[in-house]
Amino acid sequence: MAGSSPAMTAELHARHSPVPDVVSQYSAMLASAGPPNESPTLTPELHQKLTAWRRHLHAHPELSLQEKATAAFVQEKLTELGIPFEAGVGGHGIVATLTRGSAQGRVGLRADMDALPITEDTGLPYASNNPGVMHACGHDGHTASLLGAAALLANDPSWSGTVDFIFQPAEEGYGGSRAMVAAGLFERFPMDQVFGFHNWPGLQAGTIAVHDGVVMASGGRITITIEGHAGHAGMPHLTRDPVMAAGHLIVALQSVVSRSVDPLDTAVLSLCTIEGGTAPNQIAGRVTIRGTLRFHREGTKDIILGGIERTCAGIATSFGVKVSPEIVMGVGVVINTPAEAALASIAAEKVRAEVRRDLAPSMAGEDFAHYLQQRPGAFVWIGNGELRDGAELHGPRYDFNDAILPVASSWMAEVARTALNAN
Q: How far apart are CA 107 and CA 172, in angstroms?
């Protein structure tokens, strides 16, 4: 870790402490970190404020496309910071803009705002007040971090150019980035590059992972409907059993990746739900299977789709049922562009974070891909600390680590400064 110390690492690992304790952690980190950067650092007072904002957002989560109160909160804080913004960009999306000096460069920084339909099981004093809805992916922390970056840049006269702060709704599979792009994001705010991050449980707290090329997977949602002929369970010869067909189909589909995709390639086909039947003594007439597919190369997608079609057709013939697969493709592959990955790494070193360039890509998806299809950019992971049972992303005991807010906010501000200077 460039310019780090064991005290910094130990303090970053501390979790779930009251706001004053989090502030004292960061104060100790600043004291042990050596000479300050030339750029303004995030003060303990701002860290305290960001922690309170993050915990407020955690306690008041909203699902994708429903982020009205979250958006209002962000607008309130931007107003307090004196940063102008436009609301209602692609739904509840917000874009705030700061301009300094005469340089023409323009950089975008993005955070997502939506929560998930998960029941929280943390027991935290700031746990969700919205039953069945939870910030189980850290978007509350991403939003607070971007507000922190905005505060840092607003109080820093040293840079020149324009920075756009993108607060995005509906990341969790509901097309928030696509909606913002369709609403003219890059025409109305003609940024040259775009950067973002995701917190990463299991990666040492405060460590920044930068990938060369692929970061996260593309994927799609699978729905397979099997229609048979219902009847008495004691007279199966008079039926066409979709449940039995479904069992064979689930097993057979696992051979698509294992026997059709190059072993050196990367792909996942997971079938996650099955619904069918209402009575234990009746053979059902219909079964529905749902799942997801993920891949890192577009060519792999075609192999998987072809395998699904062939397998469904074979099962239909074997069991005398109708099998109808429907596949809706979602986000694209998240692929960092080389120059921007380098800028992301340089910025991480400037804020004295440990940098990892050796991590494999994830099979999880991220709709930041839509921005990278429009502009060069980079998406990094910032370590959230120890991975505990049930506290992984989308887990019921997950919580964003408030001790990494200074690293996240400082990196976002620094990557904007670094990119503008490079321009």
A: 24
Amino acid at 104: Q
Residue that is written with structure tokens 């493709």 in the block: 329
DSSP string across 354-403: -EE--PPPEEEE-TTHHHHTTS-EEEEEEEEE---TT-STT-TT----GG
Within 10 angstroms of residue 25's Cβ, the number of other Cβ atoms is 22
Element (H, E) at 268: strand 267-276
379: CATH: 3.40.630.10
pLDDT of res. 390: 84
Give the separation between CA 374 and CA 82, rounded to whole angstroms: 29
B/e letters for 160-176, b = 16+ CB within 10 Å, e = fewer, are: bbbbbbbbbbbbbbbbb
pLDDT in the model for residue 21: 53
Q: Give the Å distances, CA to CA, from 132 to 94, 120, 121, 411.
A: 26, 7, 10, 33
Are both 47 and 182 inside the same structural domain? yes
**Residue 225 within a domain:** yes
Q: Rounded to 5 degrees, what angle do the CA atoms 118, 394, 173 make?
A: 85
- Residues 208 and 222 both lie in one domain: no
Phi first, then psi, for residue 7 (nearest 5°) are: -65, -40
CB contact at 8 A, 391 and 188: no
- Show the domain range for 90: 6-213+336-422
Distance from C-alpha of 375 to C-alpha of 231, rounded to nearest angstrom: 56
The model scores a pTM over 0.85: yes
Residues of the chain with pLDDT under 70: 1-40
Tokens of 269: 């086909």
User: Among candidates 149, 187, 151, which has minimal Cα distance to 419?
Assistant: 149
Structural domains in the chain (count): 2
Which of 283, 314, 329 marks a domain boundary?
329
What kind and span of H or E run contains 334? strand 334-335
Length of the chain: 423
The whole-number pLDDT of residue 10 equals 35
Q: Taking Cα atoms as reference points, which of 144, 19, 216 lies closest to residue 135?
A: 144
DSSP calls for 117-136:
S-------TT--SSTT-B--
Assigned token pair, 169: 């709704």
